Each structure stands twice: as C-alpha cells, then as structure tokens.
Amino acid sequence: MTEGPSFPTSLGTSEGTTMSLLGQDVAGDLMGQVSFGELAYWLITLERPTPRQTRLFEAVLIGLADHGFTPTAIAARLTYLSAPDSIQGALAAGLLGGGSRYLGVTEDTGRFLAGVLAATPDPLPDGDDAAAWDALAEQAVADQKAAGKFVPGLGHPVHKQGDPRTPRIIAIAHQEDLYGPHLALFEAIGRVHPKILGKQLPLNGAGVSGAALADLGLPLDLLRGVVLLARCAGLLGHIAEEIRRPVADAIYRTVDRNAEYIPPGPPSVQPG
C-alpha cells in the first residue's frame, strides 16, 4: 500500500474534537492564557517568548499600528468606499501599499544594521563602549553617503525634532535587558551622522523598531511582515471609523472635482 504525501507543519492541526497550535491545546492552553502578541512571536519563531521579549515585541507592534491618514489608510478607506461588501479587499489594499516609503523602513533598517554588524570583525564593541560604536557608525554612514544611498531609519516628515517612539522602545529594551548590538549601532548612527551628512535628523520609530526586532532575533525576511501585522489592526480601525464617520467619499470627490485636464504631449519645461 502506497503511503500518501506528507505535509509537515509545526503550527496548527485539528482533530474531531480538538484543535492544537504550536503543540498546545488551543482552548485549554492558549485561549485566555496567552496574549495575541505573544502568540504572534511564537508563531514566527517557533519559540515561546519570555515576558521580557513579549513586552518589547508588543511595544513595537503598538508603535507601528497606525500613523493617521497615510496613503495606506486612505487606500483602505477608498477601497471600502468602492466595495463595502469586501472588507478583506479594503484591508488588503492598505497592506499592499507597505513598501519602501511606507512600512518598509523597519525591514530596511534591520537589514542595514545587520549587514554592518556582519561585516564587522569580531568581537563587536561592548554595549556601553560608545566611542567604539560611534567609530563603527561613522564608517557605516560614510559608506552610505559615498554610495549615494540614504541611511535607513533617519528622518521623519512630522517628528523633525525627535520621534517619541524611539526613546521609549530603547528604554523598554534596556529595562528588559534586551538592548543588543542593532540598537547600539542605531543609537550611534543618531549621534554621529550630523558631522558626516551635515544635518541633524531624528532616529525614527520605524527604524528603531527594526533594530529592536533584530535584537529580538526575528528573521530579517519577516520584519516587514511584523509591520504589516501591526498595521492590519490600524487599518481595521480606519475601516471601522469609515463606517461610523465616513470621509472617503469627500477625499474622492475633492480629487475628482479638482482634476485638471492637460492635453497629451511632452512635459512642459519650467523656466529655470
């Protein structure tokens, strides 16, 4: 007798009267016992987080959940306006906009910091050796500048004097003894970049989130997924608010009624 195909999983399985997840009984072991953030971390890493890890991970999720009327939120609201029968479409529309300008900075920063650390000869500086971290950060920022690239995690269009999420996440990481090399390098970049770039830029919350998640040991390939997990809650909030107090139609009509027809042709050249 030929055996059928096998599809191994360490996640969820179901039997006639039971449901298990991560080897735990869903009803008896998880429901009412485990927070959603703890479960998400566990599903991603297949390791149950400690209370310390859970606190930092959930702080990151909260900081990334919503930023107001961003393009992703507007996309979700406009999609709901067009197809109120498809809430999944509205959520998906918002999530699909998570790229290099919005929602992607967390991944970009985590990858950048990890790349610098991987290229650094062992041993890495001690966590409290600010001078050594600053030297490493100076080289990293200078290399980015020479390559004509931005340093991910620097700058914010609104919080120009400092992103309030950044010191809070760093403080929680210290409190929970989870402050690692990615956060140390990120803070050093914040200290040294003005003399290299010639301007002072804030360390943004998306960037510090990438550093914190990398210090938690989450796979770099999944950092943007963590951001999307957080933003899904925010988008659902926007859709709920759109139902209670709609604005999407006004957004649509404002753009539509102010559209200006321009005959096709080569782009006009403005006098310089």
The CATH topology of the largest domain is what? Cytochrome p450-Terp, domain 2
Q: Estimate the mean pLDDT confidence.
A: 93
- Main sheet attributes: strand count, strand direction, barrel closure: 3 strands, antiparallel
Termini separation comes to: 81 Å
Q: Beta fraction of the residues?
A: under 5%
Poorly predicted tracts of residues: none
Look at the helices and sheets and give the structural class. mainly alpha
Largest sheet, spatial ordering of strands: 1-2-3
Which CATH architecture of the largest domain is right? Orthogonal Bundle
**Total tally of structural domains:** 2
Gyration radius, rounded: 23 Å
Order of helices and strands: EEEHHHHHHHHHHHH
Number of beta strands? 3
What would you give as the CATH superfamily of the largest domain? Cytochrome P450-Terp, domain 2
CATH class group of the largest domain: Mainly Alpha
The helix count comes to 12
